[in-house]
Each structure stands twice: as structure tokens, then as C-alpha cells.
Amino acid sequence: MSQIFVSLFPLLALICSGFYLKKKAFFADGFWAGAEKLNYYVLFPAMLFINLASAPIALSQVKNILLILVLVFGLASVGLYLLRAIHRTPSARFGVYMQSVVRFNTYIGLAVVAALFHQPGMTLLAVILAISIPTVNVLSVLALADREQMNLLQIFKALCSNPLIMSCFVGALFNLSGLPLWAGFEHFLKQLALSSLPLGLLCVGAALEFNQFKTAIVPLILNTLARLLFMPALAWLICIWLGVPQLETQVLVIFFALPTASAAYILTKVFNGDSQLMAAVISVQTLCAALSLPLVLWLLM
Predict the structure, then answer these.
(1) pLDDT greater at residue 150 or residue 28
(2) pTM attached to this predicted model
(3) 4-12 long-range contacts, CB within 8 A, separation 24+
């Protein structure tokens, strides 16, 4: 347990530091917007590309990961749509519930996996992200949009213009091509990648808002439990059922134990969803993950 705490402490300290710096207005608000933009469009795509472009990826691993992701996301989505039909949930709220359960905070995931499993774990997580990022974006948009708002061409264009999706796609193609990456350019990308995690975790902390906790307290609790406990438990059961190797099981369960993504708030606002509830969900899940993640890791390890 002490090893887990030592591994998680730096990322928790960075998140708390970001929250403190934002609370004390140490930087102007424009700094945080610029930092998020730099990470989203430059640093984070560089990390995803370098991990996929140079990683030794086995086809059997990709098959296992794809099957488990399809099963977990599929079962979760079917369950949510059944509950929507029973309770007649409007899109503004349903989109929040969907994002609360299927989206994930990539910065926290990369930090945890890098600390505990190093390069082998990072390679597996890069494959998971390459499949999951477009999947959860489609699920989120479909859940938030009313039927009359749906435009499949617009959704496709949005996915193609997403820098995270494109960096995964290009990195995977480069890996399959077998071409060597020039050493100088590889070192440049690695330096960009090294900057991504600390800056991303600081931005996670700066985005936390704790003034919306009185908003829809029951959905808030249920969505937090679903994301942080039910999803990793479901992933673990499916991995055990399929006989997935230990490292893949550990990385997949950690992935499904992550709190929802901070970017969910922006997408919710774009589609006129319940952004106040989304902000509360993001903050509560991130806060509770400080307790649930060590528990999940302890059970796994």
C-alpha cells in the first residue's frame, strides 16, 4: 500500500497545486486557458504519437483490448439507455450521465500507469486510448444531441479534427509502416511528452469547482459510484472471464477506474446540456478518485 501511495502522491500533489494556484489567482485566467490549449493541441498529441509510433504492439493485445472495451462500453451504454427510457431523461441531463460513466481523465490515467507499470503499461494504455477516445466522443455527442440536432457528417468532421484522435491514428500508422523515427525528432517529441503530464495535472486541479455540490445530489452520487466502482468492477470481471493476462487486466481496470474528463464540461456547454451538473460531477469524481484509485490499485496489486 505504501508503494501505491508513493506512486500516486506526485499526481495528487500536482492536482492540489493547480487548484491552489487557481484559487489564489497566482496566474491570470488567460494562463490556464492557454496551458490547456497548448496541452490539448501540442504536448498531449506528441505523447500519444511517440507512445504508439515506437511501441512493440502485439496483435493479440489489440484484440483483447478491443473486445473488452466493446463489452464494457457497450454494456454501460445499453444500461444507461434503458434507464433513460424508463425515466424519460432529457438529452441535456442524459448527456451528462453518459459522459460521467464512459469518459475518462487521460492525464491521471497516464500518470498512474507511468508510475506503476512504466513503458509496458504506457504502451497498453496508448492502444486503449487510440480506441477509446473516438468511441467515447461519439457516445457523448449522440447522448447530448437531440434527434433533430444529429448530423453524422458533422460528428465525423469533429472526430477527424480532434488532435488526440489524429495523433493516435498517425502514430498507429507510423508503427505499422515499420519506418524508423529520426533520433533528433524522437528526442524532441519525448521532451514535449514529458511536459504534458505535469501541466495537464495542474490544469485538472485548476478546473475543479466545488460550488455546485448542492445540484442534484442523488444523480451526483450515483454517477460517481458508477464511474469509480461499477465500471472497474465490470472490466475486472470481463478480464477474468476472458482469461486476459495480468498486466493487461491491471491497466484496463485502472483505465475504467479513472474519473471523468474535464473536457466533458466544454462539450456539455456546446450542446446546451446541464453544464452545472457536469461541472459538479467532474469535481466530485476527481476528488473521490483520490480515495477510490488507491483502493482499486491495492486490490489489483
Answers:
(1) 28
(2) 0.85
(3) 4/116, 4/294, 4/297, 4/298, 4/301, 5/294, 7/112, 7/115, 7/116, 8/112, 8/115, 8/293, 8/294, 8/297, 10/111, 10/115, 11/108, 11/111, 11/112, 11/115, 11/201, 12/290
Q: How confident is the model at residue 148 (pLDDT cuts 50, 70, 90)?
A: low
Which cell is 172 given? 498507429
Q: How far apart are the first and last CA of the chain?
A: 9
For residue 91, the enclosing domain spans 1-300
CATH number at residue 219: 1.20.1530.20
